[in-house]
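Researcher: We're teaching a course module on how sequence relates to structure. For the next exercise, students receive a sequence and then see the predicted structure as tokens, so they can try to spot secondary structure elements on their own. Here is the exercise chain.
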Amino acid sequence: MKNSLFYSFFKGATRATTICAVAGSAIICSAHAEEAKGFSHTLTVDAAYYPKSDYQKGGDHFAKITGPIDGILAKATWKSTYTIPTPLGQSELLSGANIELNGSLEISPLSIRPIASVSFTPLPFLVFDAGASIGSGWNMLGFEGFCKYNGNTYKNLTPFAHYYHEHWVGATFQFDTGEIFEGDWTHVLMLANYQMIYKGITGLKKGQLWAWQTTEGYANGLGYEFIALLGYQMPKFVDLIGVMADMYGNYSKKDFGDYADTFGKFMTVELNILARLAINKTNSLTIAAIIGSRRSFATDHEKGEEEPHLLQTGREWYFDSIGFSWERKF
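Model: And here is the predicted structure for the students to work with:
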């Protein structure tokens, strides 16, 4: 059973922090397939368009679009995977077990970082994984790719004098109804993943806020990420449609230091509506509309750098972006 293909679909989504970059095969969790030992390679190019949505004060609410553009994002990732079959038995349930060793290089106009991970799939519906990455960034044309917060504004960090790093362990439960009901139109895909993930930048004091790849408000510390996906696969050019929820936060508000009471302990939530186009056997394009959420505050403000000094009063939903992810398999 090609359970690793279902997992790769999901991993493309989780490693793209600002767009839903979905990677994987056009055939997901295909029954009665055998894993082949050896290398595989993929190139993924992600892009996103962000309309402008001004902050609004108050409790929980939805902020309307107020301008045509607030930014764009682009990055490319080369990934090489070495698959090692590790059958745990002769039955179909156990014979497809495998270990995957993954090495990636992510490059964007604002950053560069290598990524290494390993995953173990003992059962078709269960995957364990762990990984780490380290890299550096810079700022360009007004975009904050790599900054620290000095109490009033975000200031540039010196590239390669400081390093962004993250480390994670996680588990994924995945299921395809096509494994029970035969047919091309019976594939309802369900997936849930939970990860413990540490994110940080070297050389910063405890509780200092920072920005990475244009996203402000991070602080060094241990966090969690939960992702749930419900999709439907079909034998058409549009071979997959689905919805995905992505939730992330820090375990402890103490990670945010002086801003712990007004700014810390907040779980961001993103809702993704996605569709994948199977261009051919080696190329696919995923398109996603993303609804995001952020802190809402008691007073009006214009810039994110004002927020650490404001009183949080709720959650603000807004239309975050339209994302595109092209994947080429080699």
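Model: If you want an answer key for the exercise: Confidence is low (pLDDT under 50) at residues 1-35. The CA atoms of residues 269 and 325 lie 21 Å apart.
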